[in-house]
Amino acid sequence: FSATATGYTAGSDTLEVTDDESSAVTIIDSSEGAPGFVPSSSSGWITQSSKPLAYLENTHKLKIINQVSGTQAEWVFSDLPNGQYKVATTWWYTPSRATAPYTIGWGDFGNSSGGVLATKECDQTQAPDDFTDGDGWTWEELGTVNVEHGELKVRLEDGIGHESKNLIADAVRIDELRQEHDEEQRDLRVHQVADHALPEDRA
Question: How far, CA to CA in Å, does 81 sit from each of 84, 119, 120, 179?
Fold first, then answer.
């Protein structure tokens, strides 16, 4: 860009703008046998496929009357670089759905080790609507958390609702938020014009 001012020598310089925050995305699906997805073996989960509104058309469904109290499903992300992550999930929504309580944590969620990082309840009768990815799937954010132990887990707890309602376990997505430089070294640079645009009597 260029700039002029009365009593100053005109000059020009460049404005270099670089987005220094990028993300690396990892998704664990809930299809049968998907690595990292662990449905409760004691509850009556039903595996469903060819469902267009489910992520990759696969999902798990559990009727509230058939759930055994406790963790209903878990998504485990291992060997992660420590840093900040945005966590989101999606589900196949219909009026027959329950409210889904999610807990983000690590280790044993503080029972004997690890801890809880965030919690959120999602109304699965409504569509996830926080953002849409490049493939057209919609997602609901569960929280942004700091990973310090190389592991992040998402637990789906007991569904909330009438016993006839259904709880859905679908995909969970994490976005690693990367800061390439410290705040003072960001690649958003405005180079000063003409060496601070010296006054004419000093140019």
Answer: 9, 22, 24, 13
